[in-house]
Specification:
Length: 212
């Protein structure tokens, strides 16, 4: 991350990892982790993503939160909701320096928790129903993953509460305007050139991109 910052990138928030049982099983770990998001990782919703930037990228459906009030202390679940301005369907592009995504917990933390890219869809200020909304991920229009936001710690807002604890433990804070990627709702799918990826969260819209 220091190299990224030295190159002029700026932090725009954090991502949480291993917040769903499916993801823990897929990666073979059992602990919650977090990494940084930078402006250079942000890809255009509905645009093209150059896979040449990555090693062996995968996409996973996520919920993205926009922080409305600075998070500078551990929050309860109710307080977490009060600190969020909006929510959006999102796709995280994960990548890894480790072959076949096989790594130890220490390895993945050192690799910024595989965080490499993100696509954020339309924002909604209504959080009602977010605790158990249907999630569909399609590749070229074909259904690839089906899940629920409930897979994210039982309620994606719990990721905000957990994020508040993690950053506080590190002596840090998240200013208003920060993004929080709550974690994957399903297992990840490998990307290949030409494929169109879309994620729909029932009641909250869709995010998408095309690989090139």
């Amino acid at each position: 991350m220091q190299r990224r910052y030295a190159d002029g990138e700026r932090s725009i928030g954090i991502k949480l990892g291993f917040t769903s049982r499916a993801k823990m099983q897929q990666m073979g770990v059992d602990s919650l982790i977090w990494g940084w998001l930078t402006d250079a990782m942000l890809e255009e919703d509905g645009g093209e993503v150059a896979l040449s930037r990555y090693i062996h990228p995968r996409a996973e459906p996520e919920v993205c939160f926009l922080v409305g009030r600075a998070i500078d202390r551990p929050l309860t679940l109710l307080e977490a909701a009060e600190h969020i301005e909006a929510v959006a369907p999102a796709i995280e592009i994960i990548d890894s320096r480790y072959e076949a995504f096989k790594f130890s917990l220490e390895d993945v933390v050192a690799d910024n928790c595989s965080s490499s890219g993100l696509v954020v869809g339309p924002w909604s200020r209504n959080l009602s129903g977010l605790d158990n909304a249907g999630v569909l991920m399609r590749l070229d229009g074909q259904l690839a993953q089906v899940g629920s936001t409930a897979a994210i710690l039982g309620n994606p807002l719990r990721s905000v509460a957990e994020a508040s604890k993690l950053v506080s433990e590190a002596g840090l804070s998240l200013p208003a305007g920060s993004l929080i990627m709550a974690g994957a709702a399903t297992a990840a799918e490998a990307l290949r050139p030409g494929v169109h990826v879309s994620v729909e969260i029932a009641g909250f819209g869709e995010s998408a991109f095309t690989c090139r």
